Amino acid sequence: MLAALAEGPSTIESYSSGADCLTTLNCLRQLGVDVNVSPASDGSRTVRVTGRGLRGFRSPESGQMLDAENSGTTMRLLSGILAAQPFTTVISGDASLRKRPMRRVIDPLERMGAAIRSQDGFPPLEIGGSDLVHGISYETPVPSAQIKSAILLCGIQASGTTVVREAVATRNHTELAFRAFGATVGVNGTEVSVTGPQRLTGGRFTVPGDISSSAFWLAAAAALPGSEVEIENVGLNPTRTALLDVLRRGGAQIQTIVESEAGGEPSGRVLIRAGAPQPIVLGPGDVPLLIDEVPALAAWAANVGDLHVTGAQELRVKESDRISALVRGFQALGADIDEFSDGFHLRGSRRLKGGQADAEGDHRLAMAFAIAALGAEGPSAIMGADSVAISYPEFFATLERLCE
């Protein structure tokens, strides 16, 4: 998205082959951005984007709606960009995305000068952008990197200074990416600010491997005695590595080596071995930096551990009601698990029997159930497993390789 807003060409290597990322490219093409994708031998993509500059997007053809499919990140972040474009755009998604709350980005963007119509706070969104958007000072209602990023993406195009405050710091990829494209961003604790409009300049970038996808291999290695897994070229941004700290608390033996800090994003390798398991307790202060890794941690607990999670009510408005669907799936595999309004308690006090778990269209649950099933007494079937294509199409092929 920043490459599309920048001046000049950008090349992005190791771009994910996941459906969510390809959906973003399709939306940008509809907005007049020249995007070319070349497959790489490792399953990733090299993407070349010719930037159109700030407010240089073109209105979609008459009657054409942008389709964010299953990607809440695409919809929320792109909404921030479209709020500053001088035309009206409609953006929607699949049945799951249309159930996800958007009021949390609608409210601040309207305060910045956009006019947004929705279905009582849910998609589709009709975004009446304006080239008169202005900066605001805003405190997010829930800690969310998506909310923060949507506001900053509008703020980089707006007049004046935009300030976003969070109760708990969230992942900072957007702030780092702004700087990589030549923008100035202020960070003071949990407060981030940008003064717009700022000129962005294209360049050459490499995307580190996603630690949220790696989480499932980390969980598998930590859960199965005698296991050892080394993951290369994975992102080690400190706002994303809380998972490693938690797994260490759970008894895993972990070594990390930072090999690059290109674009301000540390990356390198992680070596993990199973250790003596210890109970893990996560509360409201832990969850924001672990929100996508909770299913992987549950897969670890289902085999050897004890995981008690509270303060995770945000999981109820993900691709599924991720708390209820997670509990139902693990129960189907034979786990000892209790559900709370804001979390769950999973006790790995007995070996899973195996069974049939329904991922309910949620890619992270499909992967979590598959990892948990590795330690079950009998065979397991994961319904809706094709949903892994959303973020990690190669997941099952990699799982087969690791199990050989």
Question: What can you tell me about this protein's structure?
Answer:
The protein is an alpha/beta fold. The strands form six sheets. The protein has a four-stranded mixed sheet with strand order 2-3-1-12. The protein has a four-stranded mixed sheet with strand order 4-5-7-6. The protein is built from twelve helices and 21 strands. Helix 4 packs parallel to helix 5 and helix 9 runs parallel beside helix 11. The chain has two domains: 205 residues, UDP-n-acetylglucosamine1-carboxyvinyl-transferase, Chain (Alpha-beta prism), CATH 3.65.10; 193 residues, Enolpyruvate transferase domain (UDP-n-acetylglucosamine1-carboxyvinyl-transferase, Chain, Alpha-beta prism). The mean pLDDT is 95. The two termini are 39 Å apart. The protein is globular. The relative contact order is 0.10.
How many discrete domains? 2
Helix count equals 12
CATH architecture tag of the largest domain:
Alpha-beta prism
Give the name of the CATH superfamily of the largest domain.
Answer: Enolpyruvate transferase domain
Q: Mind describing the biggest β-sheet?
A: 4 strands, mixed
What overall form do the CA principal axes indicate?
globular
* CATH C-level name of the largest domain: Alpha Beta
Spatially, the strands of the biggest sheet line up as: 2-3-1-12
DSSP strand count? 21
Mean pLDDT: 95
What's the Cα radius of gyration? 21 Å
The end-to-end distance, rounded to whole angstroms, is: 39 Å
Helix content: 25-40%
Beta-strand fraction estimate:
25-35%
User: What name is given to the CATH topology of the largest domain?
Assistant: UDP-n-acetylglucosamine1-carboxyvinyl-transferase, Chain
Low-confidence stretches: none
